[in-house]
Amino acid sequence: MDIDHILDYYLQQGFTLRIKTIYFWICEREFEFVFLFFHSLELLFIIWAVISVFRLGIYWVVFAIGITQHMILDMLFNQNTVYSYSYFLSYRIIKGFKKEYLFRPVALEK
Fold first, then answer.
1. CA triplet 7, 85, 79: central angle to 5 degrees?
2. pLDDT 10s digits, 35-74
3. Is 25 helix (H, G, I), strand (E, B) or coil?
4. Residue 90, class by beta-carbon neighbours within 10 Å (0-12 exposed, 13-18 middle, 19+ buried)?
5. Residue 56 to residue 3: CA distance in whole angstroms
6. Contact yes or no for 36/8 (Cβ under 8 A)
7. Distance CA 106, CA 62 (A)
8. Number of other CB atoms surrounding residue 19 within 10 Å
9. The model's pTM
10. Integer-rounded Cα radius of gyration of the chain
11. Which of 31, 36, 54, 101 is the most exposed place for a label (fewest CB within 10 A)?
């Protein structure tokens, strides 16, 4: 799920295999944009709908439970730094993926 953090780095900084570099780039909020395509409530809804409509097996349900749990925990533990509506990909698209619309001001202070 968090692979999209690495994708954000690659899109904005280029390719590197240095996980430590990516980690500090994320922690220091050096990014300008926040794409995080997989951290999307719309995607979560689509996954559950596809599982339901196509009656996919237990492995898909377990996968969806994992993603759902990840999103819930992210939303709970990041509520002081991230606006809850920024978990909607549609909102991020409307705001041009700019970090100042997604993070609370306190999270962007250095």
1. 85
2. 999 999 999 999 999 999 999 999 999 999 999 999 999 9
3. helix
4. exposed
5. 24
6. yes
7. 36
8. 10
9. 0.89
10. 15
11. 54
The pLDDT of 72-91, averaged and rounded, is: 96
10: CB partners within 8 A, 6+ apart? 16
| Helix 19-27 × helix 3-13 angle, to 10° | 90
Task: Write out pLDDT tens, residues 85-95.
Answer: 999 999 999 99
Provide the pLDDT for residue 1: 58
| Extended beta strands in the chain, E state | none
C-alpha to C-alpha distance for 89 and 105, rounded to whole angstroms = 20
Percent of residues, the chain, with pLDDT higher than 90: 96
